[in-house]
Amino acid sequence: QVQLVESGGGLVQAGGSLRLSCAASGRTFSRYAMGWFRQAPGKEREFVAAINWSGTNTYYADSVKGRFTISRDNAKNAVYLQMNSLKPEDTAVYYCAAGDGSPYYRQREYDYWGQGTQVTVSS
Questions:
Q1: What pairs with residue 19 in β-bridges?
Q2: 75-123: per-residue pLDDT in tens?
Q3: Nearest-10 Cα torsion for 8, 15, 47, 43
């Protein structure tokens, strides 16, 4: 069992940066791939980024590639999402998830989900 708690969301102007954190409980955190997903108002939840259990492989949605960076610290049971050059279209609730993550973009491959953190980017 893994419990996930996101933090770091907030209101930022376009072009700004935010760093999201996801704290995980449970001794088995390092076994899981971790993903970030987001859901904008009126839209379906979508894949943003993922990282394998060891941190050696990362994956990104085309819409965030080059602007967002996912990382993890297994010693701290945490995963991060550094978001730079934010755009109004990045406004959404951001969720972290843990699971097999294969394939990394498929939501049903993730067994555990956090409650989400709101990111709002003003123009």
A1: 82
A2: 999 999 999 999 999 999 999 999 987 889 999 999 999 999 999 999 9
A3: 100
